[in-house]
Specification:
With 222 residues, this protein is of the alpha/beta class. It is built from 8 helices and 7 strands, in the order H-H-H-E-H-E-H-E-H-E-H-E-H-E-E. Helix content is 43%, strand content 23%.
Length: 222
């Protein structure tokens, strides 16, 4: 199996099931023009996030790692008109690109981007009593994943869903001796989930246009 095949199958799925769309295309074009790395979720992955939010009946979403707001648009579009999405982004330039992309998509009333390292902006979010969030998408700097999970638990309720991106990384996740702090952050995340009885979770390996990677999906129990 090759990357070309994975990409071709993703294209086939996307052509049939994930129609292209002006606001999403413009968001990617603006992100590219601003020099942001193309590490957004793939279209069919964005649609998965959207469907999970819909199935969950989510009215509020918290996202860690906005980049140009591509996944943000998919998630915000799953919310009702009075829904709310907060996305946390450390890079001020990316945050500006994302705000413009959200405005172009007509989602600026629903979705806000907070600039700053997530661990710095989360205490204010907590103090404002925004939330509890119905769905959390963790997709920022991987070394902090265990901290982000702790925060996600603080800012959710029984019934909330927590999704984490990039938990496979070409299979590196199984290497206990990995020198990569991103891999160690993800391994620490799995250990934390395993020791939390209030989380019912699974993880899936995926291949596609974004290579070989995967997601954690967790349900917060009562
Ligand atoms: N969710 C996006 C992709 C996010 S890429 C999508 O799929 O479209 C990861 C993002 O996390 C980058 O934009 C990076 O700047 C941001 N990031 C890195 N460290 C961060 C931190 N400490 N706090 C918040 N965001 C961070
Ligand atoms: C990287 C980050 C991501 O969120 C992703 O989906 C792919 C790659 C990265 O930091 O390289
Ligand atoms: Mg990611």
């Amino acid at each position: 199996m090759s990357q070309e095949q994975w990409t071709e199958v993703d294209r086939y799925f996307t052509d049939h099931l994930v129609p292209s769309d002006g606001a999403l295309d413009a968001a990617l074009a603006a992100s590219d023009a601003a020099g942001l790395s193309p590490i957004n979720v793939a279209p069919n992955q964005g649609k998965l996030l959207h469907l999970l939010a819909r199935i969950q009946g989510a009215r509020s979403v918290l996202e860690f790692g906005t980049l140009g707001g591509y996944s943000t648009i998919w998630l915000a579009r799953a919310l009702p008109a009075d829904g709310r999405l907060v996305s946390l982004e450390a890079d001020p330039q990316a945050a500006d690109v994302a705000r413009a992309n959200l405005a172009r998509a007509g989602l600026d009333k629903i979705a806000e981007v907070r600039t700053g390292a997530a661990l710095d902006t989360l205490p204010l979010l907590e103090a404002e009593r925004v939330g509890p969030f119905d769905l959390v998408f963790i997709d920022a700097d991987k070394p902090n994943n265990p901290h982000y999970l702790e925060w996600a638990l603080k800012l959710t309720r029984p019934g909330s869903v927590i999704i984490v991106d990039n938990v496979v990384r070409n299979g590196e996740v199984v290497d206990p001796d990995s020198q990569d702090p991103r891999v160690q952050g993800t391994r620490a995340l799995f250990e934390l989930i395993a020791e939390r009885p209030q989380l019912s979770a699974t993880a899936l390996q995926t291949v596609g246009s974004k290579g070989y990677d995967g997601f954690v999906i967790a349900h917060v129990l009562g």
